Amino acid sequence: MNPSRRDVLQIAGLGLADLALHDLRMRDAGAPSGPHHRPRVRRVIQLGMIGAPSQIDLFEHKPELLRRDGEAPPAAALRGERFAFLPAEGRGATLLAPRWPVRRHGTNGSWLSDLLPCHRHIADRVTWLHAVHTDEINHVPAQLVWQTGSPRQGRPSFGAWIDYGLGRLADDLPAYVVLASGKAGRCGTACWDAGFLPARHQGVPLRSDGEPVLFLDDPPGLGRALRARSLDSLTRLDELAAERDRDPATRARIDSYELAFRMQASVPELVDLRNEPPATLELYGAEPERRSFAANCLLARRLVERGVRFVQLVHGGWDHHGGGGDQNLLTNLPQRCAEVDRAAAALIVDLDRRGLLDDTLVVWGGEFGRTPMLQGPRSDTALGRDHQRTAFTMWLCGGGLRAGLHHGETDDFGIRPIAGAVHVHDLHATLLHLLGIDHERLTYRFHGRDFRLTDVYGQVVEQILA
Amino acid sequence: MRICGAVWMLAGVLGAQQGEHPVDRFVAAGLRGAGLDFAPPADRATLLRRTSLTLTGLPPTPAEVDAFVADAAPGSFERVLDRLLASPHYAEHQAARWLDLARYADTNGYEKDAPRTMWPWRDELIASFDRDEPFDRFTIRQLAGDLLPDATTADRIASGYHRNAMLNDEGGVDAEEFRVVAVKDRVDATARTWLALTLDCAQCHDHPHDPITQREYYAFYAFFDSTRDTGVGAGPTVAVHPRAVQPTAELLTRELAAARAALDTATRTDDPVLRDWLAAERTRLLERESAPPRAGPWFHLGPLPCDDQRRALARRFPAERRVDLDRRFEGLAWQPRPDLTDGIVHALPGERCVHFLFRTIDGPAGRRVTLSLGSDDALEVLWNGDEVLSRDVTRAAALDSDRVDVTLREGPDELLLKVVNGGGPGGFAFRLVDGDWSEPVRVALRKPPADRDATDDRTLAAFLRDSAPALAAQRARVAALVAGLAELPTAQPLVMAELDTPRATRVLTRGDWRQPGPRVTPDVPAVLPPFPADAPRDRLGLARWLVGPAALRTARVTANRVWAAHFGRGLVATLDDFGARGEPASHPELLDFLARAFVDSGWSLRALHRLILTSRTWQQASALPADDSDPANLRLGRGPRYRLSFEQLRDQALAAAGLLDPTVGGPSVMPPQPDGVWEQSFAVHDLDYRWRTDDPPKRHRRGIYVYLRRTAPYPTFALFDGPRREVCAASRNRTITPLQALAMWNDPAFVEAAGALATRVLREVDTDPASARPDTVDEARLARLFRLVLARPPLPAETTELLALLRDARADFATRPADAAALCAHARVAAPGPIELASWIVLANLALNLDETLTLR
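Predict the joint structure of the above. Result:
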């Protein structure tokens, strides 16, 4: 690197975190400048299972449901409830017992489906939430509630709030990165948008085809050396402008160009998995040349290692309504499980052995759960379940949590929470708490109102904190 | 333009002394109170660039800079303002700012995010700014153009302002839920844009900060609650011809009227040829009617149960292979049904079943007759055992759904109908048509000519016009013109339309559409000027109230926004919130003065721009002083300084490069964007709806015309803080991010601009080896490059730096000429010497990335 650029960075105090905070102070009066209390974790990896996995098949042991396969569901538990496809209150629907064995694993006796064999190894390590609930019954609104706290587009996503509240750790990568695999979600960019927060807080998708970051590649023929040489000249001219007009924004712009230049080197290196040891690739079940959920889990580890604050993985294809196509629970739930089981467990193991798990938080789950009732015809070859917002399962893993705890319990059919209910807003409050943020104090003034991720809701789930 | 006098007359009224500009009097008072003074004036080139960018969104050309710098006569800046304000690009740039407030997009939003047609509204908006439509009239047309007495098509299109609200195309959603969301959105956009009021904070409960109750929110909501749109689906719309085909459409419409008149004129019952043909038709009719075909009674067999409509239709049942009225089929016998009369719909019993209907028809051999049929659902027709029709449809039975022509044979013909019901009620209808005369024509034609009355004559004139062979040429001319008009593209922009009977608006408890509370009638919050007792309580009344009783508030809010558009910050910083939670005004008296001047000028936006920009405050240099005590420039002791918008950055690069297509209006365009951007959006699975990159010149249209999809916006638009256009946005953030740097470097749109800019510089400053040394030519070219991009020549230190870069680039490319050629090709330019061109592309790319280039200063 040319000395002039190094000088600039030293003058600027090097960190984009500082730059971001400086920028924040300049533009967003009253913006936060760091955590409110001592954080337990500094980074988050979200494993988003888009389409909603069937918690009733994967994580629940319900003997009554096994006994009453094909019978009518309990009317009391369904009173007033709506579904996306089943009739209101599940009228006329029948119960569907899981078609795969569920057994106890780990020293804590976690119930796990045979479809998730690798999860046995992390059953004691993760914190299980069995009674998560949300407000929405359709995918996009529910995904938006999970990502932004509101069913309508236009609010900042969870990752954007964290970037806004805490700033950057890395000086050559964005703070908030998105990795997608599987069937595309329907939420569009709204699930990682900055909403009304400044655009720099939006999630940066690492694309699986073409350039990993938009406009990352120099035009063909330019060459890195000449880009570097021309950046030197650009910087010198901008410095002349900075001296002449004394505008602090000019200094910020010089730094943003420096970071862009560094990202052009760091991002391709980051996404290149060929240098990972074969044993690590094997652990995740990842192939360097193929963008899969497994490769994305490995990328997520590389990202948090390099100081990225929030990594959002999106893996679609869990919407198993039934029928003979790709929504068939019988054929496609095992496929999805095979795609994520090993890699998700490997991520925990890998983060742990590198000492990263203490201050990293991993969150696994979909936007809602699935009904214990059958949707569509009962057949030996094709089955399905409808959306269920009243109760579903998520797991968390990382610093500050009670490892191996099973929190929350549902009725005999897994329809309603009977203990330890956790609304998505409560989960947001808890995750922010682990990051050192008081969810009621992380606010942004927009349209004359102080907005927050949890709106007017949210309670930290103290019972799961270590 | 006759606004010059008004401004200074106003200044006189307000007691400006010694020629001091009224705006400066207010600003100076604040500065001097703090012991400060104005900054020195900006140099003329900087002032021209600043003013051109803020008014038209485009940089000045070098010739415009030279002319302004050379114009030493008094009033030179006022002449520049006149020129810029008269430009069609002024109208485009003002419209671009309004699009954020109006939440304009080319798609409906929500999950499906399907395309919509709103660009005619955007074009109408540009036309409004272009003719400086007074803002009071503009307000009325945007909010209630459809309700104006004698509303024109243009007025109705303008009312589409509030159809920019999102629409949910997702299957199974409750339309009412999303209609309520759209009405709330209209309340929000109206209150923010005209009143700077955060009314939406009162939709679930009383406003937490401002004196507005929830009941008042829904009273305001009631003004917007009675429109025809439903929250799903595009309607109502209005059909318009795009500007490009409007002349053709008008021509064809005129010619069609003439051709119809010519046909009518030629249709004369006293014309011998027509009279003879009519007589021949009469003979033909009487002959036919003297020997009509006779249909026997129907026989019915059914219902026979079936599972699948399609399979049942295809299957050959024993009953249809050979009709034997004495045989039983599946336990059923053929029943004679003389009750099944012709010409009306008869119900058939059963669901998911097959019916057979049989009759004979006897008439003169060789005659062509028509079977007119209806069925619920699928229908098969066998004529003498041959299948003449098979229709696998789901429909209700109605006469004339199908028509089949058949020829009678010697002896009775056999007609068999097979009706397959796929579910729900079943039925059929039948009529035999002998000759293609309509019933009124038959009535008139039967009579001898002497017996016909006036009605008969009119009927037969129409018959002649539509059928007489002698008039075929005139008819063909009409048909061709009708077809020609139908082939012209039309656009169907969404417009507002009022229900005949207003809805009974109710307070929605906790804002929930499923919990209606007490009834409210349209009214404005009590904290604002009262709504006139005699005014209609509809959108038109509300729009008139905004520019009548509430005019001063509307004018303050609008003047503040115009100020912010120029200075980057409003006199009230929160452009859409003048309430308790908004920022206090930095110069309240100045804002009041601007608001009054705006109203007194007849609501002329041009006059308002002129009033602000002729001030010394606008014309100051923008450098920060060494001992800066006012980092946000709240006291306005220096000129404006802020990052340009996406639209300004794109247009500036295209204009400097000489690529900009100055066409105004029309459908939105698709410049290059990276593959995969739209794949993030659900509706991309629809193969007909894809990003189709336009060729030049369309790919070089201004930023305002770039296609905007709500769930997957154009990447550079989003990277430079373009809002999502889901709700009203009064201002944009101005962030600085590395992703912006990558876009300015590498977005194909900017690389193309760099290529064209380099080519232009090489072309416009030609090498003349006899008279110039090569380094002099380089210097001249560099000066040209700077003047094209920054409206100024480079400083000596800049020249030294960039000549060194040029030398290094040449030396680098000399070792790899193929790379130089690749860079040129990527930038879509070619030259005999790719090394030289590629080296200048590097310089042009740098020039487009300078901090100064990205900044209004």
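The longest helix of chain A spans residues 329-353.
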